[in-house]
């Protein structure tokens, strides 16, 4: 696998009034890597995702994706460039079916155009059928196909999280950003999710950046970890290096890191 940077974050940050929520953030993600982003509450993790996905425009620095500057682009354009995400607070279309939730992601990329849909031309039906088949394939990967006609809001919490990942994948990303994918899951669901994240990375040739509070998940699945504290990068390294990093232990991970080693 070629090891060229897919994402380069250069001295990036954002200030809200007097608060520097993120500052001097430097990050490089190589094609195919699975990387963790950790840090205590309010460290700036979700804000970093919002910077990477066009929700916020950085007040400093640049974000390069595939060598191209993406800061300043609106979120839908960033998605089309190949960056998809999930949210800390699940954002599904609650009153649409599980299947429709995935199809929505396809609609934004669909080849058949609005005219063929309005006039219900053959291209419309072919496009719809193709979307449905592909959406069901994604649902199968996440073991959600049997719930395809259920309303999204009726799924148990852990499965809603999986559906959100399925939908993000359906947009065909090169970079997938997962914001606390295991939040609210029990240990077995978390373990299954860990395996699934590694599986989809390989199957879809993805690069993944994940925010997580569950240290076992981060240490078990990620090859590299970035640590944020008070909006700044505190450390970067392998799980082993992070686990033993004095600043990380001292600052705020002590107990969890100890648990991981236990
Ligand atoms: N739109 C905004 N306006 C003002 N302040 C903001 C805004 N978004 C985030 N912040 C502040 O920026 C800081 C970083 O928040 P952020 O949500 O990125 O942290 P986090 O690391 O994701 O925390 P958590 O683990 O609790 O989700 C916090 O102090 C937060 O209150």
TrEMBL record:
Pfam families: ABC_tran, BCA_ABC_TP_C. Keywords: ATP-binding, Nucleotide-binding, Transport. The keyword Membrane does not apply. GO terms for molecular function: ATP binding; ATP hydrolysis activity; L-isoleucine transmembrane transporter activity; L-phenylalanine transmembrane transporter activity; L-valine transmembrane transporter activity. GO terms for biological process: D-alanine transmembrane transport; L-alanine transport; L-isoleucine import across plasma membrane; L-valine import across plasma membrane. GO terms for cellular component: plasma membrane. This is ABC transporter ATP-binding protein. It comes from the Bacteria. Residues 7-255 form the ABC transporter domain. PROSITE patterns: ABC_TRANSPORTER_2.
